[in-house]
Amino acid sequence: CAWLAWSRFRLVIPPWDRTLGTLVACLDSTLRIVGGAPTYLLTDNEKTVTIEHVAGVAVRHPEMVAAGRHYGCKVETCVPYDPESKGGSESTVKIAKRDLVPTQANLLEQYASFAELVVACEQFGSKVNARVHRETGRAPIDMLAEERPRLHVLPTQAHTSALGETRSVGDDQTIRWGSVRYSTP
């Protein structure tokens, strides 16, 4: 789930997993849909973003720092237990879960395929971005048009970590995936 604070533009991209490569691929897709990169990316304190805290200071994963530099923005994390820094992202997740995750309360059917979930997420984004926001009195999609010129221009290529993990073929003609070796043709 992602949102732009000024325009209130929201979008949801369903990932296969929560690995670093998938996170950067979703980030790349998000920035391309939005049409640029903001100065800061505010995210939760996941291990794919923040590897540890030293004296209360978050230490970013080196690949996330490199991805941020690649897209021209700085990756920041929410302050734990601080509603002001976590409010927008948590609200987006809450709304997306309420409207997209099948429960007895919303009577949604289970998705027959991952593709159906992707379509539902796109429809959700179109719906929430087209309706007038109660705080701004304007539709987020209209406000995004004003915000785009202020965003940083995106590089033509995605960051390399968005393309997956790199593997090297060893002298014994094998690659490692986790702790398992596989032979290569």
Blueprint (SSEs and pairs):
Layout: E1 2-3, E2 10-11, H1 20-34, E3 40-43, E4 50-54, E5 57-60, H2 62-71, E6 74-77, H3 83-100, H4 114-130, H5 140-147, E7 174-177, E8 180-183
Parallel strand pairs: 3-6
Antiparallel strand pairs: 1-2, 4-5, 7-8
Describe the structure.
This protein has five helices and eight strands; from the N terminus they run ββαβββαβαααββ. The model has no long low-confidence stretch (mean pLDDT 85). It is α+β, with helices and mostly antiparallel strands and 185 residues long. The protein is 37% helix and 16% strand. The strands form four sheets. A two-stranded antiparallel ribbon has the order 1-2. Strands 3-6 form a two-stranded parallel ribbon. Strands 4-5 form a two-stranded antiparallel sheet. 19% of the residues are buried.
Largest beta-sheet characterization: 2 strands, antiparallel
Helical run tally: 5
Proportion of beta-strand residues: 15-25%
Task: Spell out the helices and strands N to C.
Answer: EEHEEEHEHHHEE
Low-confidence stretches: none
Q: Fraction of residues in helices?
A: 25-40%
Distance between the termini: 40 Å
How big is the Rg?
A: 19 Å
Class inferred from helices and paired strands = alpha+beta
Overall mean pLDDT score?
85
State the total count of DSSP E strands. Answer: 8
- Side-by-side strand order of the widest sheet: 1-2
Principal-axes geometry comes out as: globular
